[in-house]
Design a protein that fits this description.
Length: 291
């Protein structure tokens, strides 16, 4: 701005000498002031826009199988209808339908229930399921219908897909070394390319002991989960702890390495406890205000 003021000052004397009867030119500082005002307005508008965008966060609810994620999602849908709550796409996993190829051929029968196949025969279907799970989550995260003016809450994320479930399957031998390398390569490349479009502002970790998860799993009695035992739940619990609490998991993308985490005690069943539900939601709202 000093250069602009200087330029106006130099042109003023020439104008006055050529037209002595003309009305005096405006003081040079007025043009500079006007330009400053315009810049300040633009800066203020940009700042206000950034503040508005930061007010509405995208978070995920993470945790073990049967830790209470689905229950919390239902509670949020009921008590915070102005939020955009996205449940885990179980139907997409239980009934595989392609965007271009359509449904599975009838002769393949149960092959369309990829979740059931993964749990029933992990070595055969682990890589396939993790691929489909990641793609389905990315479709959801990139959906144009997501309202930018509301908090968005996802049930799990592409990050837990990799650092908890896929990593655990590889460790247990259900995903071989080649499949694990291929999975990490394309998943990491996609996240790098999509970057901010799939970035989370925070994660809520529903922390429950594996024994509590096993008891709830038996009560809900999902057919696909009948082969899941305490050993597998314990392995997943340790993965969540390393990733979200101890932060010892080596992660390869800033979206998951620097993301703030809220840890909630989910050992107590809150499905029919309205007081506990309100307490959990209050903690989540405080977390959203701080991140």
């Amino acid at each position: 701005m000093p250069a602009e003021s200087s330029s106006v000052s130099q042109s003023t004397p020439t104008s006055s000498s050529s037209s002595s009867s003309s009305s005096p030119s405006p003081p040079p500082h007025r043009l500079a002031d006007l330009r400053w005002s315009t810049a300040e307005v633009r800066m203020a508008e940009t700042s206000d826009s950034s503040v508005r965008q930061r007010c509405f966060k995208k978070i995920s609810v993470e945790g073990n199988i049967a830790c209470g994620k689905s229950t919390l999602v239902k509670v949020l849908q009921k008590l915070r209808p102005n939020w955009h709550v996205v449940p885990e796409p179980l139907e997409k996993w239980q009934n595989v339908v392609g965007r271009e190829s359509g449904s599975m051929p009838a002769e393949m029968g149960a092959a369309s229930n990829l979740l059931g196949l993964r749990l029933g025969d992990p070595k055969r279907w682990a890589y396939t399921f993790q691929t489909w799970a990641t793609l389905s989550r990315l479709h959801i995260a990139l959906a144009a219908s997501h309202p930018p003016e509301r908090h968005t809450v996802y049930e799990r994320s592409v990050y837990s897909n990799r650092y908890v479930f896929a990593a655990s399957l590889h460790e247990q031998g259900s995903m071989n070394d080649t499949e694990w390398v291929v999975y990490q390569e394309w998943q990491g490349w996609l996240l790098s390319e999509l970057d901010k479009r799939v970035e989370l502002d925070g994660m809520v970790y529903l922390r429950a002991e594996p024994e509590a998860c096993l008891a709830r799993m038996r009560v809900r009695n999902r057919e696909e989960e009948r082969g899941v035992g305490l050993e597998y739940l314990d392995a997943l619990h340790k993965r969540h702890e390393n990733w979200l609490v101890d932060r010892t998991t080596v992660v390869h993308h800033p979206c998951s390495s620097d993301t703030p985490v809220l840890v909630l005690d989910a050992n107590q069943d809150f499905e029919s406890n309205e007081e506990l539900q309100a307490e959990l939601i209050n903690q989540i709202e405080d977390f959203l205000d701080k991140i």
